[in-house]
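Now for a chain:

_____
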Amino acid sequence: MRSCQMMRSVLYMTGMAKMVLEVLLWAWGTLPIHYLFSSFFDMDIGNRGARNMAADGEDLIYNLVLTFKEAVFGVEKEIEVSRLDSCTTCDGSGAKPGTKASTCITCGGQGQVVSSSRTPLGVFQQVPARVDSSSRLRVRSEGNTGRRGGVPGDLFVVIEVLPDPVLKRDDTNILYTCKISYVDAILGTTVKVPTVDGLADLKIPAGVQPGTTLVMAKKGVPLLNKGNMRGDQLVRVQVEIPRQLSDEERKLVEELANLKKTETFNGRR
């Protein structure tokens, strides 16, 4: 009778030591939270059958940062994800090879071990052209491996697009504001403006009005599954009026004003 009580005490202390160890591992970030709860459930004799049941793997989330240009044209990325994989020692069963009762030393009977894997995102090569910040991309079966033969979870990639200093995006169009002088607005000019393809020439017609929008065809975002079709870049013209003029500039502007007054007067006669 006494030997049975001692045996129960030893088993209880062993279970407590295992639970304390797993609490420490979870606190250090090396053991998933469900391992911790499994230790508490292991203390309940009535739940022993549930411990041997298959369980689906958890989904994982990975934050992927893209530049503005990468989001426009699409990009092929390779990321490294830490996840729970099947234990190669017990092949995910949780028991030593050739046995059913002995606990696997490698994984502690969980059937899973922490591993790092590189996941190619080439399947997303065309998708980022139409995604924006907070978009979620799904990679099936790339999450945590299921326990004891359970279905693996999925990997969800959350996109964050870094803003461009001067270019904005409106669906498939690119927006840009071009500042020109009042002289260039009167006479017309050609300026270089930034695009997602690099610098490009933009012809400003003579007499352009402030707030006019000029269209640079096919300089926008590629249309998904539309071959070489693209949106446009819309350039809003902003005319800068100088706050101060030199004496010579003021003289010329006054002469121009007098000329316009004369033309107006003659036109009314």
User: Anything to note?
Assistant: Helices lie at 2-27, 33-42, 48-51, 68-73, 182-187, 247-268. The longest helix spans residues 2-27. The radius of gyration is 34 Å. Confidence is low (pLDDT under 50) at residues 23-28, 33-46, 121-126.
